[in-house]
Design a protein that fits this description.
Chain lengths: 117, 115
């Protein structure tokens, strides 16, 4: 089945650091990927839709300058949390929709647990 | 706007008991898809099922079954003869055609199966 790889799985870093999270579709091309954020014991909140070759579409309330998204190829989207602070600590999950079969379910990565000290 | 409500935040059962998770959705679109995902403690999301709005047939897959009722806008999920490995958070989600491929998630139901 379709596999989405997310890296790193866990990050612990100091306040003020910028952190990059990668989301790769391993066996399919994905023009569209999504980034979600999940607080402890909460649901998934869509942050943005990542579109290959164009700017990401952010959901209301999500700071574009804080959460930089780059979708430079059909198999890779990156989320950079810039100048991270403790309140950015969360579980970040990406997902991708195969270009061949856009009615398929989204395929999710395993998530990245970000902890800012 | 779309909305998914999972009224049960947490359910605790003893192994071998059946457990039913409720999901109620709201949308004005006539074409939509409903999903269930499982999130075990390790965090990854595991796809369980997808249903489109034109297919009201109930489905059974092993110990899992789903009951889709358009009349009540519900898409309930039952685990029969629960096992400890079923302990996880289960999310119901909705996708409507007019919102592109965005998923709207319910709040999730935490299922704890005790031995």
């Amino acid at each position: 089945g379709a596999v989405v790889s997310q890296h790193p799985s866990r990050v612990i870093c100091k306040s003020g650091t910028s952190v990059k999270i990668e989301c790769r579709s391993l066996d399919f091309q994905a023009t569209t990927m999504f980034w979600y954020r999940q607080f402890p014991k909460k649901s998934l909140m869509l942050m943005a839709t990542s579109n290959e070759g164009s700017k990401a579409t952010y959901e209301q309330g999500v700071e574009k300058d804080k959460f930089l998204i780059n979708h430079a190829s059909l198999t890779l989207s990156t989320l950079t949390v810039t100048s991270a602070h403790p309140e950015d600590s969360s579980f970040y999950i990406c997902s991708a929709i195969p270009d061949r079969g856009r009615n398929q379910p989204q395929h999710f990565g395993d998530g990245t647990r970000l902890s800012i000290l | 706007a779309q909305k998914v409500t999972q009224a049960q935040t947490e359910i605790s059962v003893v192994e071998k008991e059946d457990v039913t998770l409720d999901c109620v959705y709201e949308t004005r679109d006539t074409t939509y898809y409903l999903f269930w995902y499982k999130q075990p403690p390790s965090g990854e999301l595991v796809f369980l099922i997808r249903r489109n709005s034109f297919d009201e047939q109930n489905e059974i897959s092993g110990r899992y079954s789903w009951n889709f009722q358009k009349s009540t806008s519900s898409f309930n999920f039952t685990i029969t003869a629960s096992q400890v490995v079923d302990s996880a958070v289960y999310f119901c989600a909705l996708k409507v055609r007019t919102a592109g491929n965005k998923l709207t998630f319910g709040g999730g139901t935490r299922v704890l199966v005790k031995p």
